[in-house]
Design brief:
mainly alpha
């Protein structure tokens, strides 16, 4: 077994645990984020020394900054943002956008399946359009879901799509 395989296997295990927490409790614990961060930093240090660590932190930070506005309006959870950040460092820089694209594509597919299963596609799009109109009319951003019950009912856990995108990378799909 190569060192990369062991790091990838540990990431797989951590993502499975993240899926459990995300789907069971709608949150990803910070201790798991920190373990994944430590794993990523160790892998980056062994692979590229100080430059590897700097690159890992740079890309993770860029991704978290890019997703932060979505967290601020409540469309993505803080644990999901942090999980994206710590996972991005496991990818070569030219594969990070593919990782994001495929994870968000899986999230969209999960959403569509949920819409069909619950027969609420029309209701969800009406909610989205009302939100966009309200923000445009008011000129200020605000929380997408105004009540926690609605957020839990309509929200999508992103640990699963993140995990599937990681598996696609390891499988050579991108």
């Amino acid at each position: 077994m190569t060192g990369d395989f062991l790091f990838d296997l540990m990431l797989c295990i951590f993502l499975c645990i993240a899926c459990y927490y995300d789907y069971r409790f709608c949150r990803i614990p910070n201790w798991l984020i920190l373990l994944t961060l430590g794993l990523g930093l160790t892998k980056a240090c062994l692979a590229g020394g100080g430059f590897g660590v700097t690159e890992y932190l740079f890309w993770g930070g860029i991704i978290m900054l890019a997703l932060y506005p979505f967290f601020r309006i409540g469309t993505i959870g803080g644990g999901d943002v942090k999980l994206y950040g710590v996972c991005c460092g496991f990818f070569p820089a030219d594969k990070i956008l593919f990782f994001l694209f495929f994870s968000l594509l899986f999230a969209a597919l999960f959403s569509m399946i949920r819409f069909v299963k619950r027969a609420d596609l029309k209701e969800r799009f009406a909610y989205l359009l009302a939100y966009v109109k309200d923000v445009a009319d008011g000129g200020a951003w605000h929380l997408y879901f105004s009540d926690l019950q609605e957020k839990r009912r309509a929200g999508i856990c992103l640990a699963g799509p993140i995990f599937l995108s990681v598996l696609m990378f390891w499988g050579g799909f991108y």
